[in-house]
Every structure is written in structure tokens, then in C-alpha cells.
């Protein structure tokens, strides 16, 4: 794995966690009934298949648990990898490269945000900084 692929995998895991969390939350929201059931004194509504609702709830709970397990595993890998990368980044002498690598790969800031935040005239300057920063990172990554 190249240095850039290693750093990009941190961004990818962050994105994967966000997607899994959205999926989990959507499943939980879809489980909530969209309207309240009202009962009056004269009639009580019953389900023709009593076990269907229970089976659905069990399968939804199992799916949520599977997604949570996936999130935990990905998060554990992310914390380890980002911690290792951060230690290597802090060994760099060039301050702007250090700042960029942390902002872009660890904090997952966008190129547009970084361009604006750093006061650059255009995104090309930010891409040039990215190239330079990854090259510096490669030198530290090879040493460790």
C-alpha cells in the first residue's frame, strides 16, 4: 500500500462509518409506525398474523446489531490507523504539510474548505500542496 493509499484509507473508513450509521438510523426510523393507532370503546384491531410483527422486529434488531458490529470494527481500525498516521505526520518538519495532512486525511476536510481556510487563490494550489505533503509523508512512512 502506498503512502497516499494508506492516508486515503483513513478518509474512506470515516466515510464508511458515516454511511453505516445512516443506514442503521434509517432502519430504526422505518421501524417506528408512521401514524398513531387509536382505539375506541367499540372495536379493537388485531393482527391476523400475531408472529409477523415479532419476527419483523427480531430481524430488524439483528440487522441493526450486525451494522453496529461492522461500525465498531471499522472504528477500531480507523482509530489505530489514524493514530499511527498522526504520529508519522507529526515527525514532518514542514508545518504547512503537517497541517494539510491532518486537515485533509485525519479531519476529512474538503479541498474546497482547505483552499478557503488557507487563503489560497485556487484549488490548484491546494492540490500542489497535497502532492508535496504526500511526498514528505512517504519519506517518514518509509523510515518507520
Overview of this structure, please?
The protein has helices at residues 3-31, 50-89, 95-106, 111-118, 123-143. By secondary structure, it is mostly helical. The protein has one domain (7-32, 55-143). Helix content is 76%, strand content 0%.
Q: Care to give the gist of this entry?
A:
With 144 residues, the protein is mostly helical.
Provide keyphrases for this structure.
144 residues, mainly alpha, 0% strand
Number of domains: 1
Number of strands: 0
Work out the helicity level: over 70%
Biggest sheet, open or closed, and with what strands and sense?
Answer: none
Determine the mean pLDDT.
87
Assess the beta-strand content as a share of residues: under 5%
- The backbone outline, from C-alpha atoms, is elongated
How far the N terminus sits from the C terminus, by CA atoms, comes to: 14 Å
Number of helices: 5
Stretches where pLDDT is under 50 for at least 5 consecutive residues are none
Structural class designation: mainly alpha
Radius of gyration: 24 Å
Order of helices and strands: HHHHH
Amino acid at each position: 500500500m502506498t503512502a497516499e493509499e494508506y492516508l486515503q484509507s483513513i478518509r474512506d473508513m470515516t466515510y464508511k462509518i458515516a454511511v453505516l450509521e445512516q443506514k442503521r438510523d434509517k432502519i430504526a426510523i422505518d421501524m417506528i409506525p408512521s401514524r398513531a393507532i387509536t382505539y375506541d370503546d367499540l372495536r379493537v384491531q388485531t393482527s391476523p398474523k400475531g408472529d409477523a410483527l415479532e419476527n419483523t422486529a427480531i430481524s430488524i434488531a439483528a440487522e441493526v446489531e450486525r451494522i453496529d458490529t461492522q461500525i465498531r470494527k471499522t472504528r477500531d481500525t480507523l482509530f489505530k490507523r489514524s493514530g499511527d498516521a498522526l504520529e508519522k505526520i507529526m515527525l514532518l518538519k514542514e508545518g504547512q504539510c503537517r497541517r494539510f495532512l491532518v486537515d485533509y486525511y485525519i479531519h476529512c476536510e474538503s479541498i474546497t474548505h482547505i483552499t478557503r481556510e488557507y487563503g489560497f487563490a485556487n484549488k490548484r494550489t491546494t492540490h500542489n500542496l497535497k502532492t508535496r505533503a504526500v511526498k514528505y509523508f512517504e519519506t517518514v512512512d518509509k523510515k518507520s
